[in-house]
Amino acid sequence: MAKVVERKKLNWFEQLYLPAIAQGLGMTFKEMFKPHITLQYPEERQVFADDYRGAPGLVKDQDGREKCVSCQLCEFVCPPKAIVIEPGELPADDTAANVEKAPKEFFIDFLRCIYCGLCEEICPEEAIFMTSRYELNGSKREDLVFNKQQLYELGGTRVDPIKKWEGK
Ligand code: SF4
Ligand code: SF4
After folding, report:
1. Which of 16, 44, 50, 158 would you label with 92, given CA atoms 20 to 30 Å apart?
2. Cα separations (Å) of 67 from 36, 84, 148, 150?
3. Which ligand has the shortest distance to the CA of 74?
4. Ligand 2 pocket by C-beta < 6 Å: which residues?
5. 93 C-alpha vs ligand 2 centroid, how far in Å?
6. pLDDT per position in the chain (168 positions), as tens?
7. Which of 72, 77, 115 to mutate to test the pocket of ligand 1 (most atoms within 8 A of CB)?
């Protein structure tokens, strides 16, 4: 059986209503002078720590060399199958062409990516990193499938003191 809840009767002061309105306006007025915590996006943007896990991007070393060797481990481990790699060769005149490879194409579908970071963790070459970029948008679905060039623009450069094939 439904329980009838007695509504508390308003006392004479509450029935005036005006004190409640004044109280509400007072609260609004007080908030006006508090420091702003709302970010005026997109003019103001959140600054994240370096280890923030935003969109993954490919990186080059300080000499502009591609670090990715197209081993496809990240493609294999990616849970939503967001990565597609087309393995390729280094140009014949590259000093490491006899021992190393590079991706011919590398795609990440950011409509699928769940920003889990497994690609960064598994990469034996430290070639893919989660960046601080957290906003990706486009006017059609294809705009969110990034190709190799876009991924290198996203990842930028990472200084790599280990030059494993130098002089070999
Ligand atoms: S962050 Fe996760 S989901 Fe996104 S590409 Fe890397 S492994 Fe795939
Ligand atoms: S990013 Fe790393 S794991 Fe992925 S293919 Fe390149 S070298 Fe392999």
Report:
1. 158
2. 43, 17, 12, 15
3. 2
4. 68-74, 85, 122-123, 125, 127-128
5. 22
6. 788 988 899 899 888 989 999 999 999 999 999 988 888 888 998 888 888 999 999 999 998 889 999 999 999 999 999 999 999 998 888 878 888 899 999 999 999 999 999 999 999 999 999 999 988 989 999 999 999 999 999 999 998 887 777 766
7. 115
Counting ligands in written order, the one closest to the CA of 53 is: 1
- What pTM value is reported for the model? 0.78
> Concatenated DSSP letters for 31-43?
HHTSPP-S--TTT
